[in-house]
Design brief:
Blueprint lengths: L1 E8 L2 E4 L6 E5 L6 E7 L7 E7 L7 E4 L5 E3 L9 E12 L2 E4 L3 E6 L15 H39 L8 H25 L7 H23 L5 H23 L8 H19 L2 H32 L1 E5 L8 E4 L6 E2 L8 E2 L11 E7 L5 E6 L13 E7 L2 E3 L7 E3 L22 E5 L4 E2 L5 E2 L12 H9 L6 E2 L2 H15 L16 E8 L1 E4 L1 E5 L8 E6 L8 E12 L2 E9 L4 E3 L4 E7 L11 E2 L12 E2 L2 E2 L7 E10 L2 E4 L15 E2 L9 E9 L2 E10 L10 E4 L4 E6 L14 E3 L10 E2 L2 E2 L3
């Protein structure tokens, strides 16, 4: 049996010592894996269970953790091979329920083998019934012990009456015995109350009741030995024993609803220990108990320190940069992490897949409400998930996390609000309260026949619209919707740079930055066909967007067609036929084909969480980053609409209903930031009033040093923000590439607006 140690701290679940994805064997294997739960103080006293989802958001199967924190992995958790399986941990107590973030795991594939399929795990109720039967057996024993204790107390009373002449000398001892019995009674009542709270973990309360009964028996035996006890006090002790007997009977009757409250169990344990000490009147025992209590306190202190260490070291993922070198040094829990992007044939290697927040990022089909709220209709992998827009816009859900440090110096991510950390603006409501999740678009923006800006697959990213037109298309969903903002940039940039471990993003994934070509000659004429013939080395692939015209960027013959396939031509070893969507056209050898960009969804073939189809280095392919296609750079310029440059000064607005390029009403002048001249970015700057707006502070590097991205600027008049680079930006491109020469009326096929969900 393989044991995987899981640490629960606050709302996180982490695998101890794991640098990659948790693997729970192969599909249809069972009885081979188990989890050992270790938890911080927030989970102390909670009855814990684990729910396994073999595929995202299936019905799932829940398994109770035993008293040692062991969870046997059920057969259903490995019923099929899966890259997207999850475990969710829940702890309950009277009036408290704590649920962890999803812990991802994988189930490996194998060829079909003969034999029976896995056996089903008993339901939660069945598990509880089994534990309940064990509890009943223990409760019967406890009852018998309590009866023996009662009889012993009665005998003690008789002996005390015979020794009445010694009552005065033993009054103090009797009083102590009475107090002890009352304490035992209180402990029993506490256990009884805890027993009524939950049916999820019966065994701990049963154990507590048994321990109480045994201790009561010991206490009664000690009382018998003290023949100097007064009759009155002995009778009270007997009465207390009878009360305990009643409590045990109650526990027997309510065993089905017994709770594993660790806090209540500990309180009862302490009460019984005090009872034994008081009944015996032994100073030695009292001293031993005091020593044990001190040790327990020290152990608790040490454990708390250990948990604090887990929180501070295992939930911080960061990278430090210094000097002109673009690559950084990973720190915190990311110290030994590895990132190699995948392709359509390779998984690569990505340690971040196993940890939050990255492990919690997932695509979903969503209904966009006019008030800015989002309703999830289906997550990827569920019935109803489709990316063509028929079941809503395709978004990526991101769980709440916190950031620290500038992106170019020491960006760090934590799932906990630690000193010096803050929530990215995307997680803030208008009133400043926190959201537990935010949403970003999955695909670059395309304007549909309904005039709305969409995030769907299989579309051509819309171009030739100015910023006002893109914003109007976004606002058709509601007044608070917009196109990309600095808040969208911030949340994705921190996630990306920490994963990449370098400021030079293109050194990890080049993206679609070198695809553009305007001078591909038509090799043979076609007549009324949805195809064109070009030379075999034209480097045109399915998913690319092409136009055909007289030359340059002319689109007179065919405008922005998606390439559907590329075929060889019988008897022609030098040319290929490029098929595309839309109406047929007629071409001649005088026409030119030009490659523009990639259509949306072309990165769906990537089998890893991050990477490009075919190649991550050739600059001709879109890429995906945890469900977000072409985030921050490549394919088209990404317009940001919440800040602008007015006569060289950045102005920022946090109210999407007030975005304007003719007025500064509702804007804050970020005048603490001085804009440099054009050049290769070497450092970023920010204003504390808008930490999400991180702009180039200085220039002087090149395409492989410092930030390795370019910075263009025109300080005269009002300039809109274009970010990231397009399909012909080459080495200039990257998440920190900012282009500030364009005005609000400018447009081009290579500039696009991405749908932004209110943050």
């Amino acid at each position: 049996m393989t044991t995987h140690t899981i640490t629960l701290a606050r709302h996180t679940a982490q695998v101890v010592g794991l640098m990659g994805v948790l693997v729970l064997g192969t599909w249809d294997s069972y009885g081979t894996e188990q989890l050992l739960l270790r938890h911080g103080p927030e989970w102390e006293g909670l009855a814990i269970d684990a729910t396994f989802h073999n595929v995202p958001n299936d019905e799932g199967v829940t398994v109770l953790a035993d008293t040692d924190g062991l969870v046997t992995v059920p057969p259903e958790a490995c019923m099929r091979a899966s890259k997207y399986a999850t475990i969710t941990f829940r702890g309950v107590q009277d009036g408290v329920q704590r649920i962890s973030c999803n812990l991802p795991y994988m189930v490996l594939d194998h060829a079909q083998v003969p034999g029976a399929n896995s056996t089903a795990t008993p339901s939660e109720n069945a598990q509880a019934l089994t534990q309940m039967q064990d509890l009943r057996d223990g409760a019967v024993d406890a009852k018998n012990q309590a009866e023996a204790a009662r009889d012993a107390a009665a005998n003690s009373a008789t002996a005390a009456a015979a020794s009445e002449k010694n009552a005065a000398a033993s009054a103090t001892a009797a009083k102590t015995a009475q107090s002890a019995a009352e304490t035992a009674k209180a402990g029993a009542e506490t256990a009884q109350k805890a027993a009524a709270s939950s049916a999820s973990s019966a065994s701990t309360s049963a154990s507590t009741a048994t321990t109480q009964a045994a201790a009561a028996k010991s206490s009664a035996t000690t009382a018998k030995a003290s023949e100097a006890a007064a009759a009155k006090s002995a009778k009270e002790a007997a009465a207390s024993a009878a009360n305990l007997d009643s409590a045990v009977n109650t526990a027997t009757q309510k065993a089905a609803a017994a709770s594993a409250s660790a806090e209540a169990a500990k309180a009862s344990e302490n009460a019984v220990a005090k009872s034994a000490i008081a009944s015996s009147g032994s100073a030695t025992a009292a001293k031993a108990s005091e020593t044990a209590a001190a040790k327990s306190a020290d152990d608790a202190k040490n454990y708390a320190a250990q948990v604090a260490g887990i929180v501070t070291s295992q939930t911080i993922f960061g990278v430090n940069f210094s000097g002109s070198t673009s690559a950084g040094t990973r720190v915190g829990a990311a110290k030994d992490f590895v990132f190699v992007p995948g392709t359509d044939t390779s998984m690569g290697q990505n340690s971040f897949d196993a940890v939050y927040p990255w492990a919690g990022m997932r695509r979903c089909c969503c209904t966009l409400n006019a008030d800015g709220t989002v309703k999830v209709n289906a997550y990827k992998g569920q019935p109803g998930y489709i990316e063509d827009g028929t079941n809503g816009e395709v978004l990526v859900e991101i769980p709440l996390f916190y950031v620290s440090g500038m992106l170019d110096v020491a960006p760090s991510i934590s799932m906990s609000m630690l000193p010096g950390y803050r929530a990215p603006r995307k997680f803030l409501n208008a009133d400043g309260s926190l959201k537990q999740k935010c949403y970003v678009r999955a695909f670059p923006g395309s304007i549909g026949a309904d005039g709305k800006l969409h995030s769907i697959a299989g579309a051509v990213p819309t171009g030739n619209r100015n910023i006002t037109q893109f914003l109007a298309a976004a606002r058709k969903w509601g007044d608070t919707y917009s196109i990309g903002t600095s808040a969208d940039f911030e949340v994705l940039a921190y996630l990306m740079i920490v994963v990449y471990g370098t400021r030079h993003a293109q050194s990890k994934i080049n993206g679609c930055t070198s695809l553009y070509s305007t001078n591909l000659a038509v090799a043979a004429a076609t007549d009324n066909a949805a195809s064109v013939v070009v030379a075999k080395g034209a480097s045109i692939e399915p998913g690319m967007v092409i136009s055909i015209g007289s030359g340059g960027e002319n689109e007179a013959i065919a405008k922005r067609r998606i390439v559907t396939s590329v075929e060889t031509i019988d008897g022609d070893a030098t040319n290929v036929k490029v098929n595309f969507d839309g109406d047929p056209v007629t071409t001649t050898t005088d026409h030119k084909v030009w490659r523009m960009m990639q259509s949306t969804g072309t990165a769906n073939s990537v089998i890893a969480t991050c990477g490009s189809p075919v190649s991550n280095t050739d600059g001709r392919h879109s890429f995906v980053f945890y469900g977000v296609e072409n985030p921050l750079y490549g394919n088209q310029w990404h317009i940001e609409c919440d800040w602008k440059l007015v006569d060289g000064v950045p102005y920022w607005c946090d109210d999407p209903t007030k975005y304007s390029w003719t007025s500064n009403d509702g804007y804050i002048a970020l005048d603490t930031m001085a804009m440099p001249d054009e050049g290769w970015a070497t450092a970023l700057q920010q204003d504390d009033r808008a930490p999400n707006v991180q702009i180039t502070k200085s220039v002087g590097g090149n395409s492989s040093t410092y930030l390795a991205d370019y910075f263009y600027i025109n300080k005269a008049g009002t300039r809109i923000v274009l970010r990231g680079g397009r399909s012909r930006s080459g080495g200039n491109a990257g998440p920190f590439y900012v282009h500030l020469p364009d005005g609000a009326g400018d447009s081009g096929w290579d500039s696009g607006g991405d749908l932004s969900i209110p943050g």
